[in-house]
Design goal:
The complex is a heterodimer. By secondary structure, chain A is of the alpha/beta class. Chain A has helices at about 35-40, 90, 110, 130-135, 210-225, 245, 265-270, 305-310, 330-345, 360-370, 390-395, 400-415, 435-445, 455-460, 490, 495-520, 540-545; strands at about 20-25, 45-55, 65-75, 100, 120, 135-140, 160, 175, 180, 195, 200, 235, 255-260, 280-285, 295-300, 320, 350-355, 380, 390, 425, 450-455, 535-540, 550. In chain A, strands 11-21-20-18-17-14-13-12 form an eight-stranded parallel sheet. In chain A, strands 6-22-23 form a three-stranded mixed sheet, with helices on one face. Chain A has a two-stranded antiparallel ribbon with strand order 1-4. In chain A, helix 5 packs across helix 16 and helix 14 (about 455-460) packs across helix 16. The longest helix of chain A is centred in the last third of the chain and has 23 residues, at about 495-520. The radius of gyration of chain A is 27 Å and the shape is elongated. By secondary structure, chain B is α+β, with helices and mostly antiparallel strands. Helices cover about 25% and strands about 30% of the residues of chain B. Chain B is built from ten helices and 16 strands. Chain B has a six-stranded antiparallel sheet, with helices on one face. Classes of the chains: A alpha/beta, B alpha+beta. At the A-B interface, strand 9 and helix 12 of A face helix 5 and helix 9 of B. The complex binds iron/sulfur cluster (2 copies). One iron/sulfur cluster binds near residues 123, 474, 475 and 482 of chain A.
Chain lengths: ~550, ~375
């Protein structure tokens, strides 16, 4: 009979119920302790055990019970310290003695949703399924009647336009002796337009990312623009911008985001007189694809001194941006007013556009914007995007995939003849399986002018732990073991911002080459093939019909 | 690859000259169709300049429907031309080929040409629609002083079929395309040249940007931008859109379909215009291998290439007669007595413009100011 203390009180978990089970090999482990030191959640601990073994030496069996003190690595069964499967321990172990193993029979959600609060986690769901974007193939290959272009030799213009474009019928032109000039007397408002690389870095805020991470991205972007000649822009996310950047000439590579928390906007507005450059654009955030209907949330754990000062708030409080801008109540009013006042703040020299979650109602927003001459784009964020903290249920079950959403919006613009006037920015789930250029090209051919990528860039450039199935997703807790999404100096010291910047440059240079490799065989080189839907096929009839592209199997 | 033969002259000449030029360029070409557009007509049409001519093909039933419709619309038939068909093996003859000259309905007779043009296009489109499902009516053009002929078959045989060598059919500008069918089932409406309200063009090559261009044109709200049985039809419509609808000078056609790069734009005095045009007309930029030969209502002919110059094209001739051909042997056939050293092979930035009455040739370069 076991002693009573070992009885189950009906609240303990066994290892078999946790999402990851640590496989530790006694025979290989030298007890160096590195694994337990790096575990971001303290899911494993060194432990001392008393072991009783029976041995026998000599010719005749003479069993002898020996009690020994042994040192082991033990996984805790406390659900608050569950192993996240990040693999940090495996990475540091010199002897391959430890690794987490996914346990599909876990009872995680049952135990994690406590006190009537659903569990929040960082990062998007670990979804192993293949997205629509990855199923699209480029099937219109130039052959003989239309010679294929050479991606290496021909000149390519992989550029796009961000900003409202006047319809040709409205251009204020006058013709004198076969030569045109711009009719300045007409006083026609010509909206600001930027020429940029078609893939931009989506909004990830200072605060969500650690200082070296954000800086690394920013440095990479500046290098791409100034040395590589690739005009990549980056959205800042809500949460303020380092004042140094606001006053620098690099500001022109950044899209400042304003969301309902208005974090950092005091600072931004006050710095306008000192700005030597205009920002690339202003993004007004109304929704995020990963958690539509939820606002933004920077959890208290991440609001350390630096963040508190940039955002102008006290330390260690949850920083929520409500799902709507509370002072506004309708799309007509909210969007129009904000767009107008933001445009005005920069003398109508900066494109201003809203960002919404992918949703069935996106077309309503779009049509409203199409009639607003100051709206310079619409960014639609599909369900697969997002890095911030969110309820599991929002992240896993809410939202609209981007492919069909962008397609129907584009076709709606085509019907109105405005497909070139209001650029669509597509985001959410691009490069989920690593195919950055292919996913981006597919979205462009479905009708997007620009593609915005956040999470993939973060994961690729900072080498975020794990793969799509085994990511630690501690991004919201301030315990990111890589130092990517934490404000804790002990952790973010692990991240080298120069290395991040280098990878940003590599990722975009590679994407540039790959885009050319896709466009060249389709005979396109001088203009982005926006809406070139005859280039695409999919191996599913229903999808083909929905996207109005061809079916190929 | 299609073969293109355009001739513009001070004197009236016969389309057989174009056909012979096509024939010399024939090599490797399956001759799956022929299209001819004549402008500034001579012969029996010489004195009918102000009246619109409906060109097309119809079946017996189609003829009745057509007559009824034209009657009802108030158009009065004043002259009919039909070729005397000489049956040739391999060419399946339609019932009626015609060019019918009408007088405008009295209600519109004294209106401005612009309004008349819109009526003409609508009539042509209505007829096209009425006859499209059962192929009983094909209406290719309906415009003063322009005739269009199209049929499936080898160009030389078709010339014999239509009796072009003996017919009294003459004009000052004649465009002909020997079609090689690659993409689509052979279809009459897919034969070049394409014509709309005085603007005409024919093209050699594939237009890889076809779908976005088509979408853009169709969304412009102009009823004539339909059809597109060939991806080349959009070139005619871009021309029409640029010059007639947007009222831009002809040379900007080149700036629209093959826009300059930013550093090149800077060198032009009209750089701010070019920037705006490049942005606003971004979907009309072509990327495929194309040479475009076209004419505008005033009788100006031109040739332009895509930005990589992936298809051949040559312009040459003597004062009073110039030819714009896809290959030099075609030029030799059309105007043998010319100074060959003056032949122009337009490069990627060039637009070769031959003035009305073939008076002069000008090479306009996109980089020039
Ligand atoms: S996999 Fe990560 S969370 Fe799990 S024990 Fe190892 S270090 Fe800790
Ligand atoms: S960013 Fe950090 S916390 Fe988030 S998944 Fe990657 S390694 Fe884990």
């Amino acid at each position: 009979m076991e002693p009573a203390t070992k009885l189950d009180y009906n609240h303990q978990l066994s290892l078999k119920e946790l999402p990851y089970i640590i496989r530790w090999r006694d025979d290989r482990c030298t007890r160096c302790g590195r694994c337990t030191a790096v575990c971001p959640v303290k899911a494993i601990e060194p432990s001392v055990k008393l072991q009783r073994t029976v041995t026998s030496e000599g010719h005749i069996p003479t069993p002898l019970a020996v009690r020994r003190i042994v040192h082991v690595i033990e996984q805790v069964t406390d659900i608050d310290r569950y192993c996240t499967g990040c693999g940090a321990c495996t990475l540091v172990c010199p002897n391959d003695a430890i690794e987490p193993e996914y346990n599909p029979q876990n009872k995680f959600l049952l135990y994690k949703n406590k006190g009537g609060e659903g569990y929040k986690r960082g990062g998007r769901r670990n979804d192993p399924s293949i997205s629509t974007l990855d199923r699209l193939k480029f099937t219109r290959i130039s052959m003989l009647t239309d010679p294929a272009l050479d991606a290496g030799r021909h000149e390519f213009r992989v550029r796009t336009l961000l900003g409202r474009i006047l319809p040709p019928e409205e251009l204020p032109l006058i013709s004198v002796n076969g030569k045109l000039s711009v009719d300045k007397d007409k006083g026609k408002f010509i909206p600001p337009v930027r020429e940029i690389f078609p893939i931009m870095i989506g909004s990830m805020s200072v605060g969500a990312l650690s200082p070296p991470m954000w800086e690394g991205l920013a440095m990479g972007v500046a290098y791409l623009n100034e040395v590589e000649g690739l005009p990549v822009v980056m959205a800042t996310g809500e949460g303020g911008v380092p004042p140094r950047l606001l006053k620098s000439r690099f500001l022109k590579y950044f899209i400042l985001q304003i969301a309902s928390g208005y974090f950092g906007w005091d600072e931004i507005i006050h710095t306008i007189p000192e700005m030597v450059e205009d920002p690339a654009a202003i993004e007004i955030k109304y929704g995020q694809g990963a958690k539509p209907g939820d606002g933004g949330l920077l959890m208290a754990q991440k609001v350390l001194k630096l963040i508190a000062s940039i955002r102008g708030v006290p330390q260690f409080v949850d920083l929520a941006s409500p799902p709507t801008h509370q002072t506004k109540y309708s799309i007509e009013e909210a969007v129009a007013k904000m767009i107008q006042s933001m445009s005005m703040a920069w003398g109508f020299r900066v494109p201003v556009y809203p960002k919404i979650s992918g949703t069935k109602t996106a077309r309503a927003v779009l049509n409203n914007l199409a009639r607003n001459p100051y709206a310079s784009a619409l960014s639609i964020d599909g369900e697969d995007g997002g890095t911030g903290a969110a309820y599991n249920v929002s992240m896993d079950k809410m939202g609209h995939p981007i492919a069909s959403n962008i397609r129907e919006c584009y076709l709606d613009l085509v019907k109105q003849g405005k497909q070139n006037e209001l650029p669509l920015i597509a985001a959410g789930g691009i490069a989920k399986k690593g195919n950055l250029a292919a996913n981006a090209a597919a979205l462009i051919m479905l009708g997007a002018s620009i593609v915005s990528v956040g999470k993939y860039i973060m994961q690729a450039t900072a080498n975020c732990f794990g793969d799509e199935y085994n990511r630690c997703n501690l991004c919201n807790t301030g315990k990111c073991p890589r130092g990517i999404t934490t404000q804790d100096p002990k952790l973010y010291r692990r991240l080298d911002s120069d290395k991040v910047a280098e990878r940003v440059v590599e990722v975009f240079k590679a994407a540039n080459v790959e885009l050319k490799k896709i466009f060249a065989p389709m005979g396109r080189s001088t203009e982005l093939p926006i809406g070139m839907s005859d280039g695409l096929s999919v191996d599913d009839k229903a999808m083909a019909e929905r996207l109005e592209i061809s079916y190929a199997c | 690859m299609c073969r293109l033969a355009a001739i513009t002259s001070k004197e009236y000449f016969s389309p057989i000259e174009n056909i012979l030029a096509l024939e010399t360029m024939k090599e490797g070409h399956d001759g799956s169709g022929l299209g001819i557009t004549l402008k500034d007509l001579g012969g029996e049409f010489k004195d009918l300049k102000g009246y619109p001519i409906l060109s097309g093909i119809c079946s017996k039933e189609g003829a009745k429907i057509l007559d009824d419709y034209m009657d009802k619309s108030g158009f009065k038939l004043i002259h009919v031309w039909t070729p005397k068909i000489r049956h040739v093996k391999g060419i399946i003859s339609h019932d009626h080929y015609f060019a019918r000259v009408y007088d405008y309905p009295s209600s519109i007779k004294h209106n401005h040409l612009h309004e008349k043009e819109d009526l003409l296009v609508n009539v042509r489109l209505t007829l096209r629609k009425m006859g499209e499902s059962n192929q009983s009516i094909f209406a290719f053009s309906f415009y003063p002083d322009v005739i269009t002929l199209k049929e499936v078959g080898d160009p030389l045989q078709l010339a014999e079929f239509f009796g072009l060598d003996r017919e009294n059919l003459k004009a000052k500008i004649i465009f002909a395309q020997g079609r090689q069918n690659t993409n689509y089932a052979i279809y009459l409406y897919a034969c070049h040249p394409f014509f709309i309200q005085g603007y005409c063009s024919m093209t050699n090559g594939e237009n890889t940007a076809f779908v976005p261009i088509r979408e853009f044109l169709m969304s412009r709200g102009f009823p004539g931008y339909i059809g597109y049985n060939s991806d080349s039809e959009v070139f005619t419509h871009i021309l029409h859109y640029t010059v007639r609808q947007l009222r831009l000078p002809l040379t900007y056609y080149k700036d629209i379909i093959t826009p300059l790069k930013e550093n090149e734009i800077e060198t032009r005095t009209d750089s701010d215009v070019l920037r705006l045009i490049k942005q606003s007309l971004r979907p009309l930029c072509i990327d495929g291998p194309n040479v475009v030969i076209g004419f505008t209502p005033d009788g100006t002919c031109f040739m332009v290439h895509d930005a990589k110059k992936l298809r051949p094209g040559v312009v040459g001739g003597i004062k009073g007669k110039y030819a714009l051909m896809s290959e030099e042997c075609g030029l030799d056939s059309a105007i043998p007595k010319r100074d060959k050293s003056k032949d122009i092979f337009p490069m990627k930035y060039d637009m070769v413009i031959v003035g009305p009455q073939a008076e002069e040739v000008r090479v306009w370069n996109q980089l020039q100011n």
